[in-house]
Design brief:
By secondary structure, this protein is an alpha+beta fold. It folds into three domains: 238 residues, no CATH class; 85 residues, Transcriptional regulatory protein pf0864 domain like (Alpha-Beta Plaits), CATH 3.30.70; 47 residues, no CATH class. It has eleven helices and 17 strands. A six-stranded antiparallel sheet has the order 13-14-12-15-16-17. Strands 9-4-1-11-10 form a five-stranded mixed sheet. Strand 2 and strand 3 form a beta hairpin. Helix 1 runs parallel beside helix 5, helix 4 packs across helix 5 and helix 10 crosses helix 11. It is globular and about 75 Å long.
Length: 392
Amino acid sequence: MKILYYDCFAGISGDMNLGAMLELGVPESYLVSELEKLNIKGFSLKVEADLRRGISGTKAQVLVKKNLFEKHRHLRHVEEIVNGSTLSDNVKKLSMKIFTLIAVAEAKVHQIDIQKVHFHEVGALDSIADIVGAAICLDYLQVDKVMAAPIQLGGGTVKCDHGIMPVPAPATAEIVKAVPVKTGLVQHEATTPTGAAILVATVDEFTEKIDFPIIKTGYGIGMRDVSEVPNVLRVYLAETTTDTNMHDVLVEEAIVLECNIDDMNPEQYGFVLDKLFDAGASDAWMVPIIMKKSRPAIMLSVLCTTDKAAQMKEIIFKHTSSIGLRESLVTKSMLHRKAITVSTKFGDVRVKQCVYQGKVVRSKPEFEDCKVLANQHTISIDEVENEVLKNI
């Protein structure tokens, strides 16, 4: 399995991303020729070696004719440029995913319709090249999974078309609202809206845990060189022998939230569990416990992905009597699962199968399907399940 890992210790911008991708093996000539498929004039790509605080890398800069900087575009204009090009469908799709993330964020911040957003920076040719270039590079590398460390946003203030804004800029804050971030390492904008959108659109998992062999490291050099922290984006290319699409154990980080409840109407427990599952909890359960002064109580536990933690906390505080909870970062190890449909003399039943080291080790007929067939044929659920297992 081929992995791309973003180590955003000093943030990310569109040009830093291009520099890192070139260092990881994307040919400059290929990137230039693909960008030419946009069929727009007025920009060029300047690539050179550079240094930041002793770290050498590649600086990729999109140069635009000055008289073209003032042209503002809406989302539909950008979409016409991208979809009207001869780029591959994958590159078009990913490019528009990134553009749309920024447009949605800007629309929400300014409380306007998404199609009325003026793409000040994003609509400029340099940002179009940065975003489409990111899609071109990722498509070229053909990785199986994209991972990233928490994104360093920086601190202080930034000057933009709307005046002086706090870091992160409102649009950036909106884009990264559901992913892990860090702040304050530097007193400037470490992550731009473009850089944030590239990550949110492409990363499959955010984690600081690196448990794979690194085969190549790319450093994308940023334009700023005024901090003790090197203004670089580090990206790793890794390759493992594990093919998670076929076998072995899937490993990912998750959050466990727990709270003790001794003063809530038990009739509401089921309602709370339903709310948690409806919101995307991976699992939720209640365990009877004895608290201080020998009071009987229950411990509510919720397992969820890191991006769902805030929503789970909101449900707990809103729909239970708890005034506090515990939070733990855990590692989930799961067998790979696949779904099949089995035809029986009673009817079709969906079956979940677990795979380990390339072999099916467990098959579980879908209970609701079995229940429907049992009622239809006036037989037991066991009889339906046995028939399903015989036909696998």
